[in-house]
Amino acid sequence: MLLAATCLVSGCASLPTNAPTVRSINQSATGKENTIGFKIVDIDAQIVANPPARNEIGLLQLGAMSSNPAPARTDQIRKGDVLNIAVYEVGVSLFGGTATLGGAGGDIRTPTAGTQNIAAQVRDDGSITLPYVGTLRADDTYPDVLAERIRQRLKPLSQSPQVQVAITQSVQNVAYVSGAVSRPGRVPLTAAREHLLDVIAIAGGAQSTTAGADGLDLDVHLVRGDKAVSVRLGDLRPEDLANLVILPGDRIELRRAARTFTAFGATERVSQIPFSAEKVSLAEAIARATGPADSRANARGVYLFRIERDSAGKLLQPTVYHIDMMKPQSYFLAQMFEIQDKDVILFANSRANLAQKMAALLGNLFSPATALVYATK
Questions:
Q1: Which among 105, 162, 163, 364 has the fewest CB atoms less than 10 Å away?
Q2: What is the DSSP pairing of strand 185-188 with strand 218-224?
């Protein structure tokens, strides 16, 4: 029994526990086992005044894509487009006809003005076929150019023909919107040069029934050619360079991407907690995690683990931010320190908690008196 007690006393540090102590965290940062090179930084007035750079790689990539050349005109006719061709005629015409008045002197033909609307779809070979005009090439040109071609074909057959061509349904001069939007599908692009946020708004915006529909938990995924970029919807602003002009063929998807932080250690429960707000301070995060447990935690050891990156998304260094919640000023600092997506909060264990566990274990094995003596020591 004496040998067992000696082993138990010497093994106090290896008692079951759900978090390291302040001492063990500090030792790990300076010891050989720190193979990833993390550092501990105390949260002070200087830190909150100069917060770490946020990961803005998505915004930077979108801004770079804004330099992609846009078509000179947005009304180019393409294969599969549906056209409305309006033919206006005055006098002797093909489509308008003439009015005939009967009388004793014979027929009197009165010229009239007429209009004929013809719907035509551009075939796979890029051509269309019209009555009296025949087949002509329509793709890779523009409505005014095609209208002049048709007018030239009609001139020998009609008196003073005029032609207007309009694209009523475009197949390729569109952007495709999918995911958590109210009206997914094709969005026609016009001479207004719609931007990214414009196209999302035209598609009805984020679904009102989707969690995070306000943009807090949604990512915008843009695919252009062989490039793909994702950025959080809440980070996009109308004035940003990242709110780029959408080009034909762009594909936009709104994806569910919940922002969360995780709480571990000497707290009432280990949990993953959603942000549910645009910004969450460290003080709010500690409160949502129910804070350090009075019976087990060391309030002087509240840590925030973060993988720091620069504004381009490049990995800098794993960093552990430390705050002592036993100091009154720490509550102001915690209000000013903003947490980020996937941060980890750790409530350090109290060393006294380990002694209490050992005392309880000794009490179960031996006697209350022995446990009391050990706890006193």
A1: 105
A2: unpaired
The one-character DSSP state at 159 is S
Instruction: Report the Cα 305 to chain-centroid distance in Å.
Output: 24
Phi, psi of 24 (to 5 degrees): -70, -35
User: Two tokens at 302?
Assistant: 């509240």
Please state at what angle helix 351-365 crosses helix 2-10, rounded to 10 degrees: 170
Q: pLDDT averaged over the chain?
A: 82
Q: What is the four-CA torsion angle of 285, 60, 217, 262, rounded to 10 degrees?
A: -30
What is the predicted pLDDT for the residue at 227? Answer: 92
Place of tokens 């040998």: 3
Tokens linked to 320: 């552990």
The proportion of the chain whose per-residue pLDDT surpasses 70, expressed as a percent, equals 77
* Burial of 237 (C-beta count, 10 Å sphere; 0-12/13-18/19+): exposed
**pTM higher than 0.85:** no
Q: Which two tokens stand for residue 260?
A: 């969360």
Give the pLDDT confidence of 133-183 residue by residue, as tens digits. 999 999 889 999 999 999 999 988 888 889 999 999 888 889 999 999 999
Q: Exposed, middle or buried: residue 36 (CB in 10 Å: 0-12, 13-18, 19+)?
A: exposed
- Please classify residue 79 by burial: count the beta carbons closer than 10 Å to its beta carbon, then call 0-12 exposed, 13-18 middle and 19+ buried: middle
- Cα–Cα dist 231/222, whole Å: 9
Query: Reduced to 3 states, what is the DSSP secondary structure of residue 59?
Result: helix
Task: Copy the structure tokens of residue 312.
Answer: 């381009």
Q: How far apart are alpha carbons 251 and 222 in whole angstroms? A: 6
- Are the C-beta atoms of residues 289 and 267 closer than 8 Å to each other? yes
Which stretches does DSSP call E strand in the chain?
Answer: 39-42, 82-91, 98-101, 108-121, 127-130, 134-137, 162-169, 174-179, 185-188, 218-224, 227-232, 251-256, 260-265, 271-274, 297-309, 315-323, 344-349
Cα 158 to Cα 269: distance, rounded to the nearest angstrom: 85
Q: Which residues contact 233 (CB under 8 A, 6 or more apart)?
A: 200, 206, 215, 218, 219, 220, 254
Pair of tokens at residue 284: 């709010």
Does 95 have pLDDT greater than 80? no
- What distance in Å separates the CA atoms of residue 256 and residue 234, rounded to the nearest whole number? 12
